[in-house]
Amino acid sequence: MTETVAGSAGATKRPSYWSIISKNFSSTVVDSIRTMGRAVRMLVLTLVSMVSDIARGRLQWKETLYQTWYMIGVTAFPGILIAIPFGIVISIQVGNIIHQLGADSLSGAAGGLAVIAQGAPIATGLLLAGAGASAIAADLGARTIREETDAMRVMGINPINRLVVPRLLAAWIVSPLLNLLIIGVGTIAGYLVAVGGQGVTPGAYWLSFGSFAHPIDVWISLVKSVIFGTIIAIIGCQRGLEAKGGSRGVADGVNATVVLSFVVIFAVNLLITQITTMFFPMQVG
Question: Which InterPro entries match (predicted)?
Answer without folding.
Answer: Permease_MalE
